[in-house]
Amino acid sequence: MDKLSGLECSTIAIFLIIFLIPALASGISPSTNKNVTYLTYENSTTGIRIDYPKDWTPLYGMAFMSPKENDSDTFREGLVVSRGPHGNESIEKLAADVVKFYNSSLPNFKLLQLKGQSFQGNPAQNITYTFNLPGNGTIKVMEFGSTEGDKIHIFRYAAQESKFNSYLPIISRMMDSFKSIK
Length: 182
Prior knowledge:
The chain is α+β, with helices and mostly antiparallel strands. 24% of the residues lie in helices and 40% in strands. The protein has a domain at 6-24 and 71-177: Mog1/PsbP, alpha/beta/alpha sandwich (Protein Transport Mog1p, Chain A, 3-Layer(aba) Sandwich), CATH 3.40.1000. Strand 1 (38-43) and strand 2 form a beta hairpin.
């Protein structure tokens, strides 16, 4: 395997956090309806401002986890936001490298979509895929990366495949509220 850059390593580390969080879950009902109350999270150290549902848990200044749906819920859906330098690599090249890495490292990885678009006027790539997570079944992930100047912003939404679409409106609202404050 090729060596990974510092950004790729930190991105992967943040990605893995989303799968270690279920152990921290508390017994609260989900908030996937349209009457969700949002709070604003702002962190000058990470340079982000984003709205998140009031009953979700912000963790480590960059992860936002849904409440546990019931006592037997073993996976908390959530959004992880990361940012860092992109090392003068194009967003297309970075996305292709991530897909190559996941294809060789995630169990039963299946690429569903790799699509170029824009985000807040900047070039972006949307990667949607599934993989198997023991004890939780098929996980569906949407990673959305966008460059802004010399920075890249990565949004990683992960959910059990059967719940992906029900949380997607909340995730979209969160991403739409995102502001880079640095």
